[in-house]
Amino acid sequence: PCAVAALVALSFSGAIGLTFLMLGCALEYYGVYWPLFVLIFYFICPIPHFIARRVSDDSDAASSACRELAYFFTTGIVVSAFGFPIILARVEAIKWGACGLVLAGNAVIFLTILGFFLVFGRGDDFSWEQW
């Protein structure tokens, strides 16, 4: 019951984040779809975590080099996702209002991804590995 409510809340927040992203692209005043390339960052963001989880055998260790490297790569992906619309707005490929909407969408989506791993990444009876 609690996991189902968490899944519904996470899907709702993901929909809100994608709505911000689409508003930054599809509103007639903005009308440029370059910010949709940020979707690539959304898809590749969890990959370092998945690789580190698969490679590292000792989940009880406080820190491992593989896990720290995964955090580093994930941080680089997230920072790039926030920097991409700012660069697009700076070179005037998109308007600053669209940049703001995309940045708001980024914040919501990345918090949703973080929430997914906090809720379903504990490794107890109900985890993301079952999906």
Automatic annotation (TrEMBL):
<dbReference type="InterPro" id="IPR007262">
    <property type="entry name" value="Vps55/LEPROT"/>
</dbReference>
<keyword id="KW-0472">Membrane</keyword>
<dbReference type="Pfam" id="PF04133">
    <property type="entry name" value="Vps55"/>
</dbReference>
<dbReference type="GO" id="GO:0000139">
    <property type="term" value="C:Golgi membrane"/>
</dbReference>
<dbReference type="GO" id="GO:0060400">
    <property type="term" value="P:negative regulation of growth hormone receptor signaling pathway"/>
</dbReference>
<feature type="transmembrane region" description="Helical">
    <location>
        <begin position="33"/>
        <end position="51"/>
    </location>
</feature>
<keyword id="KW-1133">Transmembrane helix</keyword>
<protein>
    <recommendedName>
        <fullName>Leptin receptor gene-related protein</fullName>
    </recommendedName>
</protein>
<keyword id="KW-0967">Endosome</keyword>
<keyword id="KW-0812">Transmembrane</keyword>
<feature type="transmembrane region" description="Helical">
    <location>
        <begin position="71"/>
        <end position="88"/>
    </location>
</feature>
<comment type="similarity">
    <text>Belongs to the OB-RGRP/VPS55 family.</text>
</comment>
<keyword id="KW-0333">Golgi apparatus</keyword>
<dbReference type="GO" id="GO:0032511">
    <property type="term" value="P:late endosome to vacuole transport via multivesicular body sorting pathway"/>
</dbReference>
<feature type="transmembrane region" description="Helical">
    <location>
        <begin position="94"/>
        <end position="120"/>
    </location>
</feature>
<dbReference type="GO" id="GO:0010008">
    <property type="term" value="C:endosome membrane"/>
</dbReference>
